[in-house]
Amino acid sequence: MSTKGSNGNGFSKEQIVNSPLFTPREKDILNVILQDGKNYTLEEAKQSMGLFKNKEVMN
User: Fold this and answer.
1) Tens digit of pLDDT per residue, the chain (59 long)?
2) 17 exposed, middle or buried (CB, 10 Å; 0-12, 13-18, 19+)?
3) What is the DSSP letter of 34?
4) Out of the domains of life, which is the source (predicted)?
């Protein structure tokens, strides 16, 4: 699978969340952090997920 969608603008949130490239836990995270109606490359999705996972928890 290439890192960009067929239109060259990346993949929709739905396409990424349904991708076999991510674990169920990662899909849950992506479903929360990615915006509906916006396209992402796989690299952008992975980067966003990494930033989310490394965020400090506030008390």
Assistant:
1) 455 544 557 999 999 999 999 999 999 999 999 999 999 999 999 999 999 999 888 87
2) middle
3) S
4) Bacteria
pTM: 0.77
Structure tokens at 45: 């999705």
- Report how far residue 58's alpha carbon sits from residue 1's, in angstroms, rounded to the nearest whole number: 37
Tokens of 7: 């239109």
Closest CA to 20 of 48, 42, 51, 50: 42
Q: How many CA atoms lie within 13 A of 5 on its CB side?
A: 16
How many residues are there in the chain? 59
Classify the phi-psi angles of 42: left when phi > 0, otherwise alpha if psi is within -120 to 50, otherwise beta.
alpha
